[in-house]
Prior knowledge:
- The structure is a homodimer.
- By secondary structure, chain A is α/β, with parallel strands linked by helices.
- Chain A is built from 5 helices and 5 strands.
Amino acid sequence: MRVIGIDPGIERTGFAILEMQPQGKFKLLDFGRIFTDKKNPFPHRLRSIADDLKVILKQWKPDAAAIEEVFFSKNVRTAIKVSHARGVILEVLEECGVPTRELNPSHIKLSVAGDGRADKLQIRKMLQYLLAVDVKSDDTADAIACGICFLTTKT
Amino acid sequence: MRVIGIDPGIERTGFAILEMQPQGKFKLLDFGRIFTDKKNPFPHRLRSIADDLKVILKQWKPDAAAIEEVFFSKNVRTAIKVSHARGVILEVLEECGVPTRELNPSHIKLSVAGDGRADKLQIRKMLQYLLAVDVKSDDTADAIACGICFLTTKT
């Protein structure tokens, strides 16, 4: 089972390709970020997210996708922007035949760090422990965590 | 100049195809709504909006698109959902080479009814006067108003 974890955003969308190995270990095949240029108009930025995601899906052919539910208690304006990117991402996944599961943020933290209120540092430390990888960006760390949560959660 | 006015939504997306005639009159070529089925998963609904919009764009080949800015003072949850649909719509317009202008809600009301705080009934009455059409749905009326605002506003 191969999954793509996605942390959507207009400026940066984090992604991670993960597999569960037969021994119950995770294998991180790829991770990175889709960037868009602030100077470009909003529709152009949305399209470049769609185009880049299609390239990643074509390369890695994931069996499923995992994406965080929208979290909007802090900044509504940001949540509105993220939701535009998120809509495009969900549509592209559907178009490419990749079934998507939406995951609750605290569920993701619980499954990765054993604590539904874990902070970003705790998540990164657990990723370092589980995958022996030092992830520098929050977007990528969130995408990996999303993928791990998917692989360890039964539906 | 042919414009498509769009009022985005997950359940219903209103659209209207308008042209400005040489005499300064508006011609309403088509209008309607894109519906999605509540029973379908969210990504499926987003994709059906994209697919249906592509059919409309292919049929009418508008030179430009006009879409309302997101209005989120009332219900954040609704605004988040609308933004997902809106993201997909902006991306499809970009993909189909249709330049998009985002319009302010009060600017739209001002240009159609001469009052930036006009209510839905006032807008409909003005549409009836301008286009001799009795529009029953708010989504469609908003889409038409958006198109008229575009055609009467210089950039």
